[in-house]
Amino acid sequence: MARLIYLMGPSGSGKDSLLARLRADNRIRPLVAHRYITRPANAGGENHIALSEAEFLRRRASKLFALDWQAHGHYYALGIEIDLWLLQGIDVVVNGSRGHLPQALNRYGTQLLPVCLLVSPEILRQRLMQRGRESTAQIEQRLTRAADYQQALPAGCHLLDNNGDLEQTFDALLADYL
Question: Where does ATP bind (predicted)?
Fold first, then answer.
């Protein structure tokens, strides 16, 4: 049975880098699903499909999303194409939301493999500062949320350390979960 690898982690933990690395490796069978987000495509960060709020709501009303949620002033979704890929026996990796993990577990049950990406506060601060997308106050807010995330990891979440080199994390993901 194909699995839905539901990757979670605080902003700056390296989810987008890890997903980009997975997409770039043609030896790997799992597909990485794009998220649909009501945020401009050039906003930086993840490779996503940008939708207006009106288009997002039309697609949701047409039941074109497998999962959807709101966070940080935007709508997010994963398209129903992931269900087709899973039915074909293809593992799928998604950038998931910890806050909406119960919704994903309800829909996918034992087919879902939650993976929590971990990074130390020091490394996280450094990464957030290097990417230059947030103010100092916003970085502090993200660090506070990240600390809360690390204190309340979802039950049953498989842990993946991303304090080191991206290739180490990539190799660990392949060895342990794919």
Answer: 9-16
Nearest to 138, CA basis, from 54, 67, 72, 51: 72
| pTM of the shown model | 0.88
**Domains plus CATH for the chain?**
4-164 (3.40.50.300)
- Distance (Å, rounded) from C-alpha 29 to C-alpha 10? 26
d(CA 26, CA 111): 24
User: Under 8 Å CB-to-CB from 94, ≥6 apart: which residues?
Assistant: 4, 5, 6, 7, 32, 33, 35, 78, 82
Hey, which bits of 30-168 come out as E strands?
Answer: 31-32, 35-37, 49-50, 65-71, 74-79, 92-95, 112-118, 158-161
| Residues 11 and 22: beta-carbon distance below 8 Å | no
Beta pairing, strands 74-79 & 65-71: antiparallel
Binding residues: 9-16
Side chain identity at 35, as an amino acid letter?
A: R
Look up residue 69 and give its two tokens. Answer: 């949620």
pLDDT tens by residue, 105-132: 999 999 999 999 999 989 998 888 887 7
Provide the annotated binding site for ATP. Answer: 9-16
Q: Is 30:140 a contact under the CB 8 Å cutoff?
A: no
